[in-house]
């Protein structure tokens, strides 16, 4: 990977990291002392990243600088990511590069929640490793068990979480541009 390619990936990585942590530009600006406009230009690629900008951002997100830069360790294909706790869920990023297809291992604790379906651009694929995952998709309300998969266009109102009967562990693949995974879950026969 060339230096220009690494630098080109910094902006999208910064935006993704900030959004995953549910931090606004204003809050990050306050934590780093960097203006909102400079942070916005960094994220959009209109401003070239520098150490004086990246160090306070890394400190604010409590990550190593190489995590912001995204330079992979030489000759090591393993993805070494730290878990992210978001909305009570623990997510382990399984992909390094921002943008494009993103993969996560997710642990949803046992809890009962009222579904709050949302929509956004993209396409999602879910695969249940253990437990039961409730998926509300449009007019459908289904429970997926270990070994079952679902895929859907995220422009359809959707929500997924624990059934309340125990924790659920699943894989999530998300393509913000609508990439499809082409794996279909088979319906259970009664």
SS element count, helices:
5
Shape: elongated
Order of strands in the sheet with the most strands?
Answer: 1-2-3-9-4-7
- In terms of quaternary structure, what is this? single chain
Quick synopsis:
It is built from 5 helices and 9 strands. It has 190 residues and is of the alpha+beta class.
Q: How would you describe this structure to a colleague?
A:
The strands form two sheets. Strands 1-2-3-9-4-7 form a six-stranded antiparallel beta sheet, with no helix packed on it. The relative contact order is 0.14. Mean pLDDT is about 85; it is low at about 180-185. The longest helix is centred in the first third of the chain and has 18 residues, at about 5-20. It has five helices and nine strands; from the N terminus they run αααααβββββββββ. With about 190 residues, it is an alpha+beta fold. Helices cover about 25% and strands about 30% of the residues.
């Amino acid at each position: 990977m060339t230096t220009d390619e690494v630098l080109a990936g910094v902006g999208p990585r910064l935006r993704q990291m900030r959004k995953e942590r549910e931090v606004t530009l204003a809050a990050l600006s306050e934590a780093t002392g960097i203006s909102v406009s400079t942070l916005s230009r960094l994220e959009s690629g209109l401003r070239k990243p520098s150490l004086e900008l990246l160090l306070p951002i890394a400190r604010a997100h409590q990550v190593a600088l190489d995590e912001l830069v995204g330079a992979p360790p030489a000759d090591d294909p393993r993805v070494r990511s730290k878990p992210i706790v978001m909305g009570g869920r623990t997510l382990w990023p399984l992909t390094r590069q921002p943008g494009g297809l993103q993969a996560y291992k997710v642990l949803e604790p046992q809890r009962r929640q009222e579904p709050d379906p949302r929509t956004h651009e993209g396409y999602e694929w879910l695969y249940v490793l253990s437990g039961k995952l409730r998926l509300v998709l449009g007019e459908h309300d289904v429970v997926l068990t270990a070994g079952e998969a679902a895929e859907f266009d995220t422009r359809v109102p959707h929500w997924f979480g624990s059934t309340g009967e125990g924790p659920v562990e699943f894989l999530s693949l998300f393509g913000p541009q609508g990439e499809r995974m082409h794996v279909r879950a088979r319906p259970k026969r009664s």
